[in-house]
Specification:
Potassium Channel Kv1.1, Chain A; 3-stranded antiparallel sheet; elongated; BTB domain-containing protein
């Protein structure tokens, strides 16, 4: 993924400590297995409506802090710091300095969080411990109109992580335009998706295009899976990725793939 020049910023946790700042989308360069990213492909929901005036958004508690926390300034006029991820997790942890005004216009969930009855409204730091920093930063660059900071290419693991966040926070309007603008799916449309038989990755790409509401791509992938699906002697649905290997069809794919 694309990286940008780094600089030095004060730690969000202790005055006087410093960390090297980088806007690389991957905090540690780790490729995240897609099996960890979309366990609930077509049934993800988001929290609806505000809670009591003293309540917090669910699970927005910092579980731990990386002693070498990367601090990335998205907007030089920042008035809020987001701590994304958890030390030791697949995506690592990073801190992002953002502008509340840009963030609250990204979606209705964050607008409610920053202007409604949530406790986060008055906080200068908010934690997103269960999200992936190098996917989250793409959202933040888009929300702050830093289009030149967006990655030029995205692989399957990166697109899957981005789709999970998009689905979780209702960000499709924000993200879909960027996907088209940057051509993040252009390469796979005419390479991976044209392979026969279908690859195991087709199921992940179906999830991604479903979340991004790219209907033509989604229908193509689902129809390819439907054509190639088989049922073995144990009544388990699968498709072949080569002459000897079977890939089990995920239960959260549309029923028509399974012939139901």
């Amino acid at each position: 993924m694309a990286t940008t020049n780094s600089d030095t910023a004060d730690s969000a946790d202790a005055a006087g400590s410093h960390a090297t700042e980088s806007s690389t989308a991957s905090a540690d360069g780790t490729t995240i297995p897609t099996s960890h990213l979309s366990a609930n492909m077509f049934g993800t929901t988001t929290e609806q409506g505000p809670g009591p005036a003293t309540s917090s958004m669910p699970d927005l508690k910092r579980k731990a802090t990386d002693p070498e926390l990367k601090i990335i300034t998205i907007d030089s006029h920042y008035d809020l710091t987001l701590i994304v991820g958890t030390p030791g997790s697949l995506g690592g942890q990073a801190a992002f300095r953002v502008n509340k005004g840009s963030l609250r216009h990204a979606n209705d969930i964050w607008e409610e969080m920053l202007t409604g009855a949530w406790a986060e409204k008055s906080q200068s730091e908010i934690a997103f411990p269960d999200d992936v920093p190098w996917a989250f930063v793409q959202i933040l660059h888009r929300a702050h109109m830093k289009m030149d900071k967006l990655s030029t290419t995205m692989n399957l693991a990166e697109m899957s992580a981005l789709a999970v966040i998009t689905d979780k926070y209702n960000l499709v309007k924000l993200v879909r335009m960027v996907v088209d603008l940057k051509g993040w799916l252009a390469g796979v449309r005419y390479s991976v998706w044209r392979k026969w038989p279908a690859e195991a990755s087709f199921q992940e790409w179906a999830f991604i295009t479903h979340v991004l509401q790219i209907e033509s791509d989604y229908e193509y992938l689902v129809n390819r899976l439907a054509v190639e699906v088989e049922v073995d002697e144990k009544d388990v649905s699968f498709f072949h990725t080569n002459s000897t290997k079977k890939t089990k069809i995920r239960s959260d794919l549309p029923d028509r793939i399974l012939g139901e």
